[in-house]
Design brief:
Elements lengths: L1 E6 L2 H13 L4 E6 L2 E6 L5 H13 L4 H16 L23 H18 L3 H5 L8 E3 L2 E3 L5 H4 L16 H21 L1
Antiparallel strand pairs: 1-3, 2-3, 4-5
Length: 190
């Protein structure tokens, strides 16, 4: 999904979005503090949508746009698009977009689970299995071997599991807020 333009007039944005819809270019219209943002959902349609946008800017009152808006209104009455503009009662701008966050929630659950596990009595010993390498004490100092022998011996999960380890509630909390925001953005696009 790619941003096409931001318009001051919500009516013009909706008219142009409906025109693009009649050309089978799926769009999304969102309100933001900057104005009405028009998104093109299919990356392959961005070039065509930009060309249509240039034409619309030259003559926004052209009959083809008004006719398309009426046609789209008829189609919408028959089968509304899930990507329509905001639903009544919803805020226009959401820093955390609505949607399904299955992967984000799984990542958050794993992070919280491992953090709680590390806080338990033998937790740090168990959590060592998730570090990128086992700690080795050499002459009273903790040393990590840069050659990662555990990974070379087949413990490949050690390359991924450190992202779920958090040392303290503040570390976990900040990362969960960032994960919720970034994960939501990524899952909304895909």
């Amino acid at each position: 999904m790619r941003e096409l333009t931001t318009l001051a007039s919500a009516k013009d944005a909706q008219t142009f979005a409906e025109y693009l819809r009649t050309l089978n270019i799926e769009t999304r219209v969102e309100q933001s503090p900057r104005g009405t943002v028009l998104w093109v959902c299919d990356e392959d349609q961005v070039t065509r949508a930009r060309a249509e946008w240039e034409s619309f800017q030259k003559e926004p009152q052209a009959e083809r746009y008004r006719k398309a808006a009426r046609l789209a209104g008829t189609r919408r009455a028959e089968s509304p698009s899930p990507l329509e503009a905001e639903q009544p009662g919803e805020p226009a701008f959401r820093p955390f977009p609505a949607g399904s966050y299955r992967i984000t929630m799984i990542l958050a659950f794993l992070s919280v689970f491992l953090t709680v596990m590390m806080e338990s009595p033998d937790g740090m010993k168990t959590a060592q299995q998730f570090f990128i390498a086992r700690e080795v004490v050499y002459q009273g100092r903790v040393v990590l071997r840069p050659s990662l022998p555990e990974v070379r011996q087949g413990e490949v999960w050690r390359l991924i599991t450190p992202i779920f380890l958090h040392f303290g509630i503040f570390h976990l909390l900040v990362n969960m807020v960032a994960l919720r925001w970034l994960g939501g953005q990524v899952e909304q696009v895909s």
